[in-house]
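Pilot study result, target chain (321 residues):
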Amino acid sequence: MHKLTTAIILVICFFGLDLNIVFAAEGGGRPISLGGAFVAIADDVHAVSWNPAGMAWQENSECTYAAILNNRDKYVTADLISDDYFSFVQPLKSGYERNFANFGGMGFFVHNSGYDRNGVETDLYHYGLAYGRKISSEEMAIGVSLTQYSFSAETNLLDAEDSAISINLGWLWYYSNSISFGCLCENVFEPGYSLFGVKSRLFRVFRPAIAYYPNDRTTISFDIYDLTGNTKNTGCDLSQDIRVGIEHYLSDSVSIRVGAHHPNSKEDTVKFYSFGMGLQRADFLGLKPINYYLDYSFIYWQKSLSGMDKYTHQLGITIGF
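Predicted structure:
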């Protein structure tokens, strides 16, 4: 009994901060290489989890898979990137015409993260369904996603698991040909969960964003994570984190990206800078009209926790059909 009590105390102390912020893990080669500043862009299959409103303009079916090539099974709260990420989007078409304005698009996504450290093995899965459609005009859309978070932890002496269901709301407005505004409200009703007797909740996070398109080949995006400061003084302060990304197409098929994630909190010292490249082809294995996109992301962590690499490599593939 003494060993069991000691183990519980150690696990709680070990997780501490993790119990609250582990659910911040995100994924996708293109969004990550943009520093996570993707809410106001959301123009491809990654919109399913980053801003479901973006699916309103989806014209073709797409699926994507991205995986971390190194630094797996480390501190998930340190890298903020899912080990594995998959999403799929399907436009809802009229039986008589391609009426995207009325029917929008829907999709689903799956994230997987976790680590095995100091005898504690953890796994985080979050997966959900999303839907987006245009409203009032051709320039504005809203979206909603229903997500289930499942988390488990296991040691030699005990294990625990719990889950929570969350609702996220998205909004996207193409104000002009050169500016778009986006917003994502995560965990609207702040669902709760409990691990090893410790009760916590998924914090409501308000994420406004703007994207600027100086020309048809360049995008500059800017996000603020937790603008209202709901996570401040909670032990997992992510309030007013700044995310910036730039994407430029060198040609019709090759793009380069840079990004940065800069936390403003003293509690959150995980800063990273990213670089990425994209390759787009109009056919896949000679089978037209299937398209494919390869995305590579390189992330440099300015401050890495003990045992964590300073560099992370991620590779993703997207297929459109």
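One observation from the pilot: The chain has six helices and 16 strands. A full batch analysis is planned for the follow-on phase.
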